[in-house]
User: Which sequence fits this backbone?
């Protein structure tokens, strides 16, 4: 029960942390907002954000697996990495767009998540940015 409450708190904090910066990033292609979203991804994974998001897709999956909560947050992470890929593509940064997309795909495959699925807590955000 305590672990479940902790995970729910992490997810709630994550959703709160990415909502405004994601909206702002989609409206303005703002790099600062993109970095805020990336920082939140690192935090939910309980990893240093800069290090976590520079990992190869396979290494990111391994770190998520080792964290013990990877399977619980995988959908949120995969969704967010996929959206970050779109944001980098809009900015013309094909290298970062490809890395984020490959990370999203690796997380989705490893944890059995369909990238076309939007986590329930992110449906409202998805509607705002679509």
Assistant:
């Amino acid at each position: 029960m305590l672990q479940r409450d902790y995970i729910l708190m992490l997810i709630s904090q994550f959703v709160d942390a990415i909502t405004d910066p994601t909206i702002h990033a989609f409206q303005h292609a703002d790099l600062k907002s993109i970095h805020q979203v990336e920082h939140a991804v690192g935090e939910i994974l309980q990893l240093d954000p800069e290090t976590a998001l520079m990992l190869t897709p396979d290494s990111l999956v391994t770190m998520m697996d080792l964290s013990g909560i990877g399977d619980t947050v995988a959908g949120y992470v995969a969704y967010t990495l996929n959206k970050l890929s779109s944001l980098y593509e809009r900015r013309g940064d094909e290298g970062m767009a490809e890395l984020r997309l490959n990370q999203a795909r690796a997380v989705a495959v490893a944890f059995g998540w369909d990238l076309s699925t939007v986590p329930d807590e992110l449906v409202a955000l998805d509607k705002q940015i679509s």
